[in-house]
Design goal:
- There is one protein chain.
- Helices cover about 70% and strands about 5% of the residues.
- By secondary structure, it is mainly alpha-helical.
- It has a single domain (about 65-330), classed as ABC transporter involved in vitamin B12 uptake, BtuC.
- The strands form two sheets. Strands 1-4 form a two-stranded antiparallel sheet. Strands 2-3 form a two-stranded antiparallel sheet.
- β2 and β3 form a beta hairpin.
- The protein is globular and about 55 Å long.
- Mean pLDDT is about 85; it is low at about 1-30.
């Protein structure tokens, strides 16, 4: 992004070069920056076609519902991580924020006997507060985000473990279990919640100045600041969103399991980052796609599902996911090399 470009238009695709003039007046369906989605879309379609021929029950209603449920948590976390990475950051503490938020929820409900709505508010507030702490440490103290969030991962998870003491909270009210196990129009509630979050986030990324300025902050923070964008506020805001969505994901996961385990949610971080990067978000900021993250989450969920359907041990899910990620990133690299060449 050049310094003399206003932040509202920085990074926008010049559609006049490739399409008729009227195309430029259409809403930006895939966001303000040109994020190539052909790689994750191609991998997802190919894998689905292969599985359809291999296993006739792949496209059954039950199996598609299982895939959607697996993808729902990663979609929720992926939206927040897309915002953070687009703004030139990283958050390694999302698993700990998720756990600490749900421990606060369980403690408020079971140990202190507070009303259900108060427990929900405290859970969400805990997630947002953890994200705010991360943002403050990264921006005002100028500490590396990798080190900050790695440290707060230990702090937040340690606090959850200290309070829980190895205990498992379970047996939540029916409304909580409905969030994780209920259906509306035969669609699981976790899927509905995650899709709503994805749609709202995409609208903000593609249609609102929030998304444009996040890209500007990640692409060139110095130039964005010169154009009047409050870089510190947007970077802190991205971490707060990440913390808030971690709490939401924690509520959904807790509701599905009807339990809170302070030592859980260990593998969610790598799966979330993988989904975001596979979806085309640039790891060093300035380019992100909510639609790409959606595709990345579904791709990883389909990979895990395929391993189970084909009868392999669950450990092979990591191997298969790693191979698919490498192939997808390889497609990105070849495309970039052709464009640069």
């Amino acid at each position: 992004m050049r310094a003399n470009n206003p932040p509202e238009t920085a990074g926008a695709v010049d559609t006049h070069r490739f399409f008729p003039a009227w195309v430029a007046d259409l809403p930006p369906l895939l966001g303000p920056t040109k994020v190539p989605l052909i790689a994750p879309a191609t991998m997802l379609v190919l894998l689905a076609v292969v599985m359809a021929f291999t296993r006739g029950d792949f496209f059954s209603t039950g199996n598609l519902r299982a895939i959607a449920l697996d993808a729902s948590i990663i979609m929720l976390l992926g939206v927040g991580m897309t915002a953070v990475i687009t703004a030139r950051g990283i958050d390694l503490s999302i698993g700990a924020i998720l756990i600490l938020s749900t421990v606060v929820f369980a403690a408020a409900l079971k140990d202190f006997g507070l009303p259900l709505w108060v427990a929900f508010v405290l859970c969400l507030a805990t997630g947002a507060a953890c994200g705010y702490v991360n943002g403050l440490l990264v921006t005002y103290l100028k500490m590396p985000d990798f080190i900050v969030t790695l440290s707060t991962e230990l702090v937040f998870r340690g606090l959850a473990l200290v309070y829980a003491g190895g205990a498992v909270f379970f047996g939540f009210p029916d409304f909580v279990k409905f969030i994780g196990r209920g259906r509306f129009l035969d669609i699981p509630m976790p899927v509905i919640i995650s899709v709503v979050v994805v749609v709202v986030a995409h609208i903000l990324f593609a249609y609102h100045r929030i998304g444009i300025r996040l890209h500007a902050v990640g692409g060139n923070p110095v130039a964005a600041a010169r154009q009047g964008v409050n870089v510190v506020r947007y970077r802190i805001g991205s971490y707060v969103i990440m913390g808030l969505l971690s709490a939401v994901a924690g509520i959904v996961l807790m509701a599905r399991l009807d339990a809170v385990v302070a030592s859980g949610a260990v593998t969610l971080l790598l799966n979330t980052i993988a989904a975001v990067i596979v979806g085309g978000t640039y790891l060093f900021g300035g380019r992100g796609s909510i639609v790409g993250t959606f595709l990345g989450a579904w791709l990883l969920a389909v990979v895990s599902n395929a391993v189970v359907l084909l009868g392999f041990e669950a450990f092979w899910q990591h191997v298969a996911a790693g191979v698919v990620i490498l192939i997808t990133i390889g497609l990105y690299s070849r495309r970039t090399a052709r464009l640069d060449g």
